[in-house]
Amino acid sequence: MIKNITAKTLIFDFDHTLFNTTAFSSSMNQFFTDRTIPEKIYDDIIRKQRADSKDNPDFLKLCEESEKLRYKISKEDISAFLKNDLSSYLKGPVKETLTILKKKGYVLMILTKGIDYYQRFKIRQSGIEKFFGKHIYVCDEKKEEALRDVAFKGVTYFIDDHADEIETILKKFPDFKIIYVKGPKTAHDRFIEHEHIPTITDISELPKMI
C-alpha cells in the first residue's frame, strides 16, 4: 500500500526509463538458448508465459515451462542468474543522478509494472534499491490504480517512457508534472511532441529541469 506523500516527489518508471530492458531481455533469452533450448521452442515458451502473465516476463516461470518440455535448467544456473550484477544495464549515469536528486530533498519512488519478485530482482541487482528504500511499488497492470488512494501534497513529477501510461496518469492526476524519457517505442514520440511534454534521453538531464 502506497502511503500519503507530503514532500516533493519523483515517481519513476523502471523498464526503459532507468533500465535498458531491451538489452537485458536479450541476455535473458540468451541464457535459455545457451542451454540447448531451440530458439523456436523458446519463442513459443516465452510467448505463452507472457500471455499468461499480462505480458510480464517471469524468469522462474520460463525455467519451469522449459523443464516441462524436458529442457532442464540447473538450480545453480538459476541462482547464478538471479545474482548477476545488472548495473551495466542502467540507462546512463542513473546512480549519480539519483544521488543528486536525493541531495535536493526529493522523495524518490519507483512504480513499475511486472512480476513482483522479478522487478525487485532487477532493481536490487542494478544497484539502485538504496535510493528508493520503502518507496518501490510493483503493480501487475494499471499504474493509475496503484496511485488511486494516494494524496500527493507536494510537487510531483511522473517520469516514464510509455505515452499510453502518461496519458492515463494525466487524466487521473492532472496536477502531476510529466517528463517523458525516450524509450524503444518510437511511435510514442509523436504523441509526446504533440502534447508538448518535456522529453529527455536519460535521467541525467533531470536535475537541471526540476
Average pLDDT reading: 88
Strand-and-helix sequence, N→C? Answer: EHHHHHEHHEHEHEHE
**Shape-level CATH architecture of the largest domain:** 3-Layer(aba) Sandwich
CATH topology of the largest domain: Rossmann fold
Structural class: alpha/beta
Overall structural domain count: 2
| First and last CA, distance | 27 Å
With strands numbered from the N-terminus, the spatial order across the biggest sheet is 3-2-1-4-5-6
Q: Quick one: overall form? A: globular
Give the percentage of residues in beta strands: 5-15%
How many strand units?
6
Helical residues, percent: 40-55%
- Mind telling me the C-alpha Rg? 18 Å
In CATH, the homologous superfamily of the largest domain goes by the name: HAD superfamily/HAD-like
Largest beta-sheet characterization: 6 strands, parallel
Number of helices: 10
Pfam families: HAD_2
InterPro entries: HAD-like_sf, HAD_2, HAD_sf
